[in-house]
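Operator note (shift B, R.M.): manual run for DUF3667 domain-containing protein requested after the automated queue skipped it. Running by hand, logging everything below so the morning shift can see what happened. Input copied straight from the record, untouched. If output looks odd, do not overwrite the archive copy; leave it for review.
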Amino acid sequence: MLEKYNTKDALYKYRGKTCLNCYLPLEKSDHFCPNCGQKNTTKKLSFGDFFVEFFSGLFNYDSRFQRTLRVLLFKPGKISKDFINGKRMRYANPFRFYLSASIIFFLIAGLSNRFEGVNFAEQEQGFENQVNKIGQDSILKSELKEIPAIKENNIPVDSIFQNVTRGKDTVKETYQDIYFTQAQMDTMSFPERTGKKLTIFYRYYKENKNPIAEEVLKDLNYENTAWNQWLYRKAVKFDLFYNNPKLFADYFTNKLPFIIFFYLPIFALFIWLIYIRRPFNYMEHLIFAFHVQTTLFVLYIIGYSVDYLLQSDWGFTLANTVFVFYLYKSMRNFYEQGRVKTILKFIILNFIFFTLATIATIIAVIVSFSIY
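Run finished. Output pasted below as returned.
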């Protein structure tokens, strides 16, 4: 784009007889290698060359980016149809464009307060309840001391207080209440044994706060295996996430773009089954799925940005509303079917989408927690 402004590079004295990249023989008149496309020049790099090449690539990508974004948002289904019909150089690659949009979305979403995990208001209320309870207990003890029968017989007020309040307070759970020996564990099935161990490990850590798995297994008289150590570390992590869920929410959110990237091919399979009579192969359905999902991320980027700047909630709601209509129009324009068929398949696809999304989320949470 900007090569014509670089007069030095245009001189024949900088033209080589062989491509420095693929070693194809060249003529002096060849400005670019016809095999790999590299510029035919032997001139040493300078800051000016780097500057020109950088902005040339930026503007070229920006042109495709703007066109892709404009068609994607304002002409539902057109970009997918153009892409499968061979008009690909004018648009950004659908898979790379998806990853770019999803990463930007989750970065912006991280700035919002939708995923806040710690509710300090609840913690303060719990503290106030404890203070009030202590105050009520003190009043109750002082009232018991004034009862004539207790004063005359010198009955200990503390013992009466314990009897009066017994059953009101929840008994603190301890790992010893559910403890099983190693021999007892060996008689259980693997899923049952694993569940018991996780519960015991979790309660043990809450009581003792010992993060060293080897010491804990020795104290519990369990086998010091890699599996038992891993289970105990997961119990420690669970306690950490339980007290501050935002840690895991941030970790899981960062992985979502790639989770959805591998989830969409499965969803495209169901689209192919629903439109099996239409003249589209699986890859063409997959491209449509990626374009639609990218549009959702772009709308969320706009919605989250509006909510963040205006401190409101209507931007996210509006993005969801617009996307429902956009998805219907995309299906109608891309698959070229009537309104009744499109609406029916629209409902079926949404049911499949949310069902698969729920299953994928559960699996992703389990896997993410396991590898954290």
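Quick read of the result: DSSP finds 15 helices and no strands in the chain. The chain has four domains: 1-44, 120-165, 175-243, 245-371.
Leaving this for review. - R.M.
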